[in-house]
Amino acid sequence: MSLAKRIIPCLDVKNGETVKGTNFVNLRSAGDPVELGKVYSENGADELVFLDITASFEGRKTFKDMVSRVAREISIPFTVGGGINQLEDVTMLLNAGADKVSVNSAALRRPELISEITSQYGSQVCVCAIDARMDEDGWHCYLNGGRIRTDRGLFEWAHEAQERGAGEILFTSMDHDGVKTGYANEALACLSDKLSIPVIASGGAGAMEHFRDAFTVGKADAALAASVFHFGEISIPELKEYLNKEGVNVRL
Fold first, then answer.
1. pLDDT digits (tens, 9 = 90+) for 188-217
2. How far is it, in rounded angstroms, from Cα 122 to Cα 125?
3. 65 tagged catalytic
4. Residues 46, 52, 131, 177: which is the catalytic one?
5. What separation in angstroms does the CA of 183 have from each of 22, 115, 138, 208?
6. Closest Cα to residue 89, out of 122, 54, 62, 112?
């Protein structure tokens, strides 16, 4: 039996509230992160991701007190990202209740950060998040919440992150983000084939079939989504029942 596929709600947090946009812009409020986290934990989510989405752009640290408040209300693995630039930031968030940290912009700027985190805390603590877009010259990675294009290609950067010890890759397709037409399954499958660590799909969930396709076509190990859960369009228990009937191994 293959490892169970994971369903992961994502709390994109700005100024203390959960927000959701489309293609990384046009943000609207989606509720209190603490309350949402508690509901997801009780409703069968396998993990929870908390991203302070403007921390890197604004040059500040993730809200430690908010992380602690969410951590106290949940009983599932908890990943936190946003504004993590050095090992001290990781230590602070783990002490606040995070189980894993997600690094994105800072790791692209200084890849050694991944090596430092994993040598200190182990690969299981480090998730390398990658925001990428399919440009005319292929998939490219972007910094600061999708604001700045880099010269790093998606696949070669994901491979380097793995080699440096990252335990998982969280791949968000910027073109698919919030559009609800399905995940970037071709790129996901390519990542899954090239890597030996788990790949988390992000960007594009709009229907239960999209989760199924991310697992079957995209070969993802986990699927992350936000607005379909926040606004009650899809319930996690119903999604898991559907996936189970479709032959996808999930924890019921």
1. 999 999 999 999 999 999 999 999 999 999
2. 6
3. no
4. 131
5. 14, 29, 17, 11
6. 62
Q: Considering only CA atoms, which of 184, 192, 185, 179 is closest in space to residue 226?
A: 179
* Six-digit token string for 72: 């106290």
The candidate with the shortest Cα–Cα distance to 51, out of 200, 238, 184, is: 200
Structure tokens at 181: 């037409």
Whether this prediction's pTM lies above 0.85 is answered by: yes
Where are the strands (E) in the chain, listed by range?
6-14, 17-22, 25-31, 48-52, 78-81, 100-103, 126-135, 138-143, 148-153, 168-173, 199-202, 222-225
φ and ψ of 109, to 5 deg: -75, -35
Residue in 12, 46, 89, 213 annotated catalytic: 12
Model confidence pLDDT, tens digit, residues 63-74:
788 899 999 999
Tell me the helix, strand and coil percentages in the chain, rounded to 5: 40, 30, 35
For helices 208-216 and 185-194, what crossing angle results, to 10°? 30
32 belongs to the catalytic site: no
